[in-house]
Structures are given as C-alpha cells and as structure tokens.
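In line with agreed milestones, the collection of sequences with tokenised folds has grown. One record among many is set out beneath this paragraph:
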Amino acid sequence: MTYRVGYAPGVYDLFHVGHLNILRHARSRCDYLVAGVVSDEMARQAKGRSPVVPLTERLEIVRSIRFVDAAFVETVPDKLETWRQVRFDVIFKGDDWRGTEKGEKLERDFAGVGVEVVYFPYTVHTSSTLLRRALDGLVESA
C-alpha cells in the first residue's frame, strides 16, 4: 500500500546504513517522506545522553538524503503533537518497537486519528549505539 505522506522519526546520530535502509524503505511506501530529526534535548530525555553529532549537522545530513522530501525537527515527546504539526498518513518505525509498550501505545494513539504504524526490519548488525561504543573504546585505548 502506498500512502500520501510518510513520517520517519529518529535521532539519526552517527548516520549509518540502518538509517539509510529505513529512509529508503519508507520512501518506497509513500509519495512524500518527512524525516523527523529528534532534537538534542529530546534525545537526552529518551536515551540519557546527547547525540555525538549536533542537531544542525544531523538535520543537514538527513535533508541531503535523496529519499527524504523534507526534514522536521522533533521537539516534543508526544508523537500525536508531532502529527498535528506535520499531518502524515503513516509513521515508520524499526521493528524493535513492535510488541513493546511504547510501540503498542503508538499504535493505539494513531489508530484514533487514522494513521497507520508500519514497522521495518531493524538493522541488527549496525546501530549508532554500537558505533558509539566502538568510538568510546578507541578513545579509552588512546
């Protein structure tokens, strides 16, 4: 099924192939893709640490990806509030959210406004967390 406007939120820190895969798959399922780039403050709240790459740079990187039609800075934790600002028809998430409390809440919240939640396979072999650990290890051994 193809949707008119899709939304793919993420921190997009230490941009890697997993990020690219989500954006590529999301764009193939909609006519117009908005990437939501989580603010530094929101990332700190959600993950307990600041991103390595500053927001302005993450935003520029994501905006430059050919699959992305627009990028939006996400500044509130409530995805329904983000929907009120962006007005998307489908939200794309990694399948690491499927079956979790936060994923089920997302599905319930969006069912009420007619937005579908579509999950894509999470890229297991790479993540910003793994890259960050590797970098931390390099710094510690230096």
Q: What stands out?
A: The radius of gyration is 15 Å.
